[in-house]
């Protein structure tokens, strides 16, 4: 496979001044005519060659400034099309034929269920026409679409619709003009029979923007939430980042066949239905939150990604990391900031940390890749967001805003690199740019999660605490790792609560340190008693912390920390410690493990939980959701899924047991049965009831089953229905099968709800689930060409069901390998992503490793896409 290196980057020899496209959407195929006006770049040599890219195209004709060319005039190898006669510039006219119906990879132009749509990022545009398909070539676009009027009444592309008309044979056309120069990956076309919800937004400078959400007719009643989210995001970006929308129209199209969540094409976002449709009857709280976050994320790309784009795909984090940070900030402002933060952190620690510690580890800005589609990763998105957040913490909110203003202003209309972003942050804040950029760039260059070790010494006589922090980089770093700038927000928790302390003459409850050296010390004065350190508040840096906390210390944080995030993270740490200790006993066959143990976690939670359930129900719910197996597997050197699962269940039971009556009190409120309201408060109330029901299922299964049935019967919304169904199915309570059947009968015509139905079963944490999944794969509603359905069954089984996936005989791996092969033949991006489930292999015992390696060898010895081959290799 061909490896592409960042160090080999070369600026394009030709710039593109304008792009004209003409699409004839015909029944069996599509013809695309392009007119591209090129100009030799000032920096290019005289003998410059015009290089375009094309894949899977039937080339019908090529002309250069009106002269027809023949195959002798160009060279076309692999995807590279080269023409040496372009001189100072001219117009290239091409005509190609493509087959959208046969395109099951869902990249480029494809048609599913009659709807034409495009997905061009990262390199899909070359499957539409010959083009300089690279993000640093920007041009204005004018696009005409011609199609059958009856089957495709709606014809959309980027920008403004400037003309429409009817042509012969029942066909019609529309011409769109996008005045903002953009790279080809932001191009979009949609054609089909769609209904539309319209609204509007008035920008801060008083311009009226038409907002349109296109969906299938039957889904029009599920667009209100996305529309409200869009309006909120547009206002928020003006207020928080000074970013105003720049076209007269903003369109979102919902598509049922889509490889990822959504795509930020200029003025015409294409969305997976799962990220735009929401209705209380069909969508859970998590679904509503996801729609809000993704709508905002794609909207925010209009500045961080579209107005300022990326020079090359190595800079992907420049738009993705920054935009994830922006959408996280937005979501925190919409609902609960603490819940948002602890969900984002748990996600990062569970999935990104594991990625960064395993065979798929890479830098936030990698130095090389084979298939760029494999680099839309947790590291680039989530760790990238954490770097932006650290800059925000380090510079302060105002300083960060000065930096982002400078960045948007300086690089508007350009394709930038990570250094430009860091440089803006430095220059706008009067810092030494050279030093700042080189120091912060290390976060982007060094893979692996840093470890910070903590040592503190309290001197009673002078009331002084000396804190020493040491950073070490993981062995994933290729060359000699350098020290990173690590912001540490911390407080001190005494026996009665938070202490105020002095650092360099500043007295406060909380301090911000920046660890820059391999080892550094700080002295805090006026420390009147020996405190427990509340470190890395709100997770101020994406590091692993090594500190000698006793159980009692963690319990003290759970009880008394003023930082809610750290209360939760202390409970997470204590739970992890107890589960791992117990699992180790199971593994070593220690008989005492069968006796009930003292649990400091259970004691600490018992003390605070009832009060917390009333005052902060969201946090109370989170405290009962002990770390998942996926999280725990990252905390151990050798991963034994059975021992960990057993230990986790046992600790959970110890935590729940003293809470029986508290759970009853929570459930008696019946918040779940109230009409749906989308607010932080209502979501918190429902989440604590769902967790309480799950807890009760472990203590009194009969009572839990009765409540679940009651919810199913009375459910005013999907959040209640889904919570009840999950409890019944995952705990194998009486009536579970009937409930599944009834749910199916009720929802079989709602694809997104049916996805949930499949997912609930595929994630049931029992070994027997494997057979159930085999049956689900044969179900008449299972369709392997729909990515959402594949993820609901195969993805859930591989990524969200460790007990069944890691079957000791290797049968879970066999099931996934077989499915992978079939999916890869149609849709490489989807298959490659699923293949990531095997990334855990090195942590497993020898026997499981052998099972996995046998499957991987089998797959690698056959025909595979370059995407999946790179991941599996
Ligand atoms: N930029 C797209 C992701 C494209 C993935 C291509 N394989 C969605 C987003 O991050 O907003
Ligand atoms: Zn994005």
Description of the molecule:
Residues 551-873 form the Peptidase M1 alanyl aminopeptidase C-terminal domain. Keywords: Aminopeptidase, Hydrolase, Metal-binding, Metalloprotease, Protease, Zinc. The protein is α+β, with helices and mostly antiparallel strands and 873 residues long. Among the domains are: 1-104 and 123-188, tricorn interacting facor f3 domain (Immunoglobulin-like), CATH 2.60.40; 309-445, Orthogonal Bundle (Neutral Protease, domain 2), CATH 1.10.390; 451-541, Sandwich (Immunoglobulin-like); 748-873, Zincin-like fold (Alpha Horseshoe). It is built from 26 helices and 34 strands. The strands form 8 sheets. Strands 6-5-9-3-2-12-15-14 form an 8-stranded mixed beta sheet, with no helix packed on it. β5 (58-64) and β6 form a beta hairpin. α10 (600-615) runs antiparallel to α11 (617-624). It starts with a strand and ends with a helix. The mean pLDDT is 97. The chain binds (3S)-3,7-diaminoheptanoic acid (B3K) and zinc ion. (3S)-3,7-diaminoheptanoic acid binds at residues 121-122, 260, 262-264, 297-298, 301, 320, 373, 376, 829.
């Amino acid at each position: 496979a061909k490896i592409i290196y960042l160090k080999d980057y070369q600026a394009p020899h030709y710039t593109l001044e304008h792009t004209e496209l003409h699409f004839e959407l015909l029944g069996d195929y599509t013809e695309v005519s392009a007119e591209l006006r090129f100009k030799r770049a000032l920096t290019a040599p005289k003998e410059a060659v015009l290089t375009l890219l094309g894949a899977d195209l039937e080339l019908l004709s090529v002309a250069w400034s009106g002269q027809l060319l023949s195959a002798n005039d160009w060279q076309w190898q692999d995807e590279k099309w080269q023409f040496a006669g372009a001189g100072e510039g001219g117009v290239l006219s091409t005509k190609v034929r493509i087959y959208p119906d046969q395109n099951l990879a869902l990249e480029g132009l494809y048609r599913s269920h009659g709807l034409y749509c495009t997905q061009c990022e990262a390199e899909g545009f070359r499957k539409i026409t010959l083009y300089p398909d690279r993000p640093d070539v920007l041009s204005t676009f004018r696009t005409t679409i011609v199609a059958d009027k009856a089957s495709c009444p709606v014809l959309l592309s980027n920008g403004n619709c400037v003309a429409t008309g009817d042509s012969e044979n029942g066909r019609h056309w529309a011409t769109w003009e996008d005045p903002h120069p953009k790279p080809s990956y932001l191009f979009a076309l949609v054609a089909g029979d769609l209904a539309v919800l319209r609204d509007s937004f008035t920008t801060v400078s008083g311009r009226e923007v038409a907002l349109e959400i296109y969906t299938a007719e039957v889904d029009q009643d599920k667009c209100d939430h996305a529309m409200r989210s869009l309006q909120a995001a547009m206002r928020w970006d003006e207020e928080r980042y000074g970013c105003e929308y720049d076209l007269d129209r903003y369109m979102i199209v919902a598509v049922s066949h889509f490889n990822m969540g959504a795509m930020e094409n200029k003025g015409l976002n294409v969305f997976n239905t799962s990220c735009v449709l929401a209705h209380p009857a069909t969508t859970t709280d998590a679904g509503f939150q996801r729609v809000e976050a993704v709508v905002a994320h794609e909207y925010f790309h209009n500045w961080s990604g579209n107005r300022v784009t990326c020079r090359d795909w190595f800079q992907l984090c420049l738009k993705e990391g920054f935009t994830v940070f922006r959408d996280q900030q937005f979501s925190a402002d919409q609902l609960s900031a603490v819940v948002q933060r602890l969900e984002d952190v748990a996600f990062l620690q569970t999935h990104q940390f594991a990625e960064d510690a395993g065979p798929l580890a890479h830098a936030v800005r990698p130095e090389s890749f084979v298939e760029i589609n494999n680099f839309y990763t947790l590291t680039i998105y989530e760790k990238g967001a954490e770097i932006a957040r650290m800059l925000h913490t380090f510079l302060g909110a105002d300083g960060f805003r000065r930096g982002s203003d400078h960045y948007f202003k300086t690089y508007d209309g350009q394709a930038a690199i990570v250094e430009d972003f860091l440089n803006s942050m430095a220059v706008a804040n009067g810092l030494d740019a050279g030093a700042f950029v080189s120091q912060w760039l290390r976060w982007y260059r060094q893979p692996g999660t840093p470890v910070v070790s903590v040592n503190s010494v309290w001197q009673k006589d002078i009331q002084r605490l000396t804190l020493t922090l040491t950073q070490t980089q993981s062995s994933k770093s290729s060359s000699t790792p350098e020290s990173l700038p690590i912001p540490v927000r911390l407080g001190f928790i005494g026996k009665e609560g938070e202490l105020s302390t002095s650092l360099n003459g500043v007295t406060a409850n909380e301090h911000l340190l920046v660890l820059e050296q391999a080892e550094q010390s700080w002295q805090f004065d006026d420390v009147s008693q020996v405190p427990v350190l509340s470190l890395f508040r709100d997770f101020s840096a994406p590091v692993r912390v090594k500190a000698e906390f006793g159980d009692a210390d963690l319990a003290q944080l759970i009880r008394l920390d003023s930082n809610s995030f750290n209360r939760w993270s202390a409970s997470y740490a204590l739970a992890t410690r107890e589960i791992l200790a117990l699992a180790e006993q199971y593994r070593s066959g220690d008989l005492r493990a069968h006796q009930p143990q003292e649990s400091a976690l259970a004691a600490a939670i018992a003390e605070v939980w009832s009060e917390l359930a009333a005052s902060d129900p969201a946090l109370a719910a989170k405290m009962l959701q002990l770390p998942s197996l996926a999280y725990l597997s990252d905390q151990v050197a050798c991963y034994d899924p059975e021992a960990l699962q057993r230990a986790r269940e046992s600790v959970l039971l110890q935590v729940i047991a003293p809470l029986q009556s508290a759970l009853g009190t929570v459930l008696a409120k019946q918040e779940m049965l109230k009409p749906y309201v989308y607010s932080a408060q209502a979501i918190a109330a429902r989440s604590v009831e769902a967790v309480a029901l799950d807890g009760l299922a472990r203590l009194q299964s009969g009572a839990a089953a009765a409540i679940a049935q009651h919810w199913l019967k009375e459910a005013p919304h999907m959040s209640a229905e889904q919570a009840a169904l999950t409890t019944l199915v995952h705990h194998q309570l009486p009536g579970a099968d009937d409930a599944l059947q009834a749910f199916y009968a009720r929802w079989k015509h709602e694809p997104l709800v049916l996805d949930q139905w499949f997912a609930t079963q595929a994630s049931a944490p029992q070994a027997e689930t494997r057979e159930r999944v085999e049956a689900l794969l044969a179900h008449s509603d299972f369709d392997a060409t729909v990515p959402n359905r594949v993820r609901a069954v195969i993805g859930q089984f591989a990524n969200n069901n460790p007990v069944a996936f890691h079957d000791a005989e290797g049968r879970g791996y066999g099931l996934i390998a077989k499915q992978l092969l079939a999916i890869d033949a149609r849709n490489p991006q989807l298959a490659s992503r699923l293949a990531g489930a095997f990334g855990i292999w090195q942590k497993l015992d020898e026997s499981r490793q052998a099972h996995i390696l046998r499957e991987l060898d089998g797959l690698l010895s056959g025909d595979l896409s370059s995407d999946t081959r790179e991941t599996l290799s």
